[in-house]
Amino acid sequence: MIEIHHLRKEYDKTLALENLHLEIPEGEVFGLIGPNGAGKTTLIRVLATLLEPTYGQVRIAGIDVLEDPLRVHPLIGYMSDFFSVYENMLVWEYLDHFARCYNVERHKRERLIEEVLQLVSLEIRRDAEIRTLSRGMRQRLCFAKTLVHQPKVLLLDEPASGLDPAGRLEFREMLKQLHAMGRTVLISSHILTEMADFCTSIGIMEEGRLLASGRVEDILRKLQPSLRIEIEVASGADRLVELLNRESASQRVDAADAVVRCRWTAGREALPELHRRIVAAGIDLIAFAVKTDNLEDIYMRISGHKTS
To answer: 35-54 in b/e burial notation, b at 16+ Cβ within 10 A?
Structure first.
């Protein structure tokens, strides 16, 4: 659904994107991760036809974004990290205005407006003036505007930044619904734990480049060369440390009170034998746990937190 090849964007002496390649299949929820200044917003604005790249090829649904932007507009819904609203309008008027801009037929507009208001939980504020809405409600309204013409591709730049914790949970459920409906979503966010929960694929950006991209489970497996083992014992922690230090597959062994931790490089299939050796050594086990790195752990390990 989204194809990007050799994409480069320069601002005077600043290189925002450099030789970026990315393909996002239809129906994916793709999360862009990276520090401020990594190039995430620039990439999204190029896809939204708001920025012209220095060079490169960008296609959405097979349409060249640079050569035929007007054909792309009906296919995309763009929500920026900073947005404005028309204070004097009513909520439904605001949505109706944008539906008209996208040439949504009159007999469809009312139904679509009701549907998106329900999706973002704003139906009870349908007739309210926008000036009376809170920051979180305005965020929901802008998201509803993004959806009102039923775009196939959603380009969301920090869309949950103004929402409270309950609003973030609702937003996450909305994205899951849109994924189930077959929409393709490209979203940037700094909330890495949430991204792992609703994204099917991710890309880690830094200095205008993609450090890694792919399915979430593949990224976690590829960038996690070892397992984290945490063993709690009733006694014999010192002997367990000695035993693990003799194992070629164990690294970075450390103990705190009755809990011993290490990195294990031999894979899960070798853990039953390790467990047997610990028991045979007379060490009284309470718990033997394998801890999997999450998305935040992976990001902190491979990123230098550099900006363009």
So the answer is: bebbbbbbbbbbbbbebebe
Report helix, strand or coil for 57: strand
Q: In the 8-state DSSP scheme, what is residue 86? A: -
Rounded CA gap, 86 and 89, in Å?
A: 6
Question: Which residue's entry shows tokens 């504020």?
Answer: 125
Give the span between the Cα atoms of 139 and 137, in whole angstroms: 5
Q: How far is CA 5 from CA 28, 53, 186, 262, in A?
A: 18, 11, 16, 41
Domains for the chain: give ranges and CATH numbers: 2-222 (3.40.50.300), 227-291 (3.30.70)
Give 24's strand partners.
Answer: 2
The answer to whether the beta carbons of residues 46 and 26 sit under 8 Å apart is no
Per the confidence metrics, is the pTM higher than 0.70? yes
- 234: phi then psi, degrees, rounded to nearest 5: -80, -30
* Nearest of 307, 140, 297 to residue 220 by alpha carbon: 297
Q: List 156's β-bridge partners, or say none.
A: 79, 187
Task: Return per-residue pLDDT of the chain as tens, 308 residues.
Answer: 999 999 999 988 888 899 999 999 999 999 998 877 888 999 999 999 999 999 999 999 999 999 999 999 999 999 988 878 888 999 999 999 999 999 999 889 999 999 999 988 899 999 999 999 988 888 889 999 999 999 999 999 988 776 777 777 888 888 888 888 889 999 987 666 667 677 888 888 888 888 888 887 777 666 666 788 999 999 889 999 999 999 999 989 999 889 999 988 888 889 999 999 999 999 999 999 987 666 666 666 666 555 44
User: CA torsion, points 105, 107, 108, 109, in degrees to nearest 10?
Assistant: 80
Paired tokens of 63: 């349409």
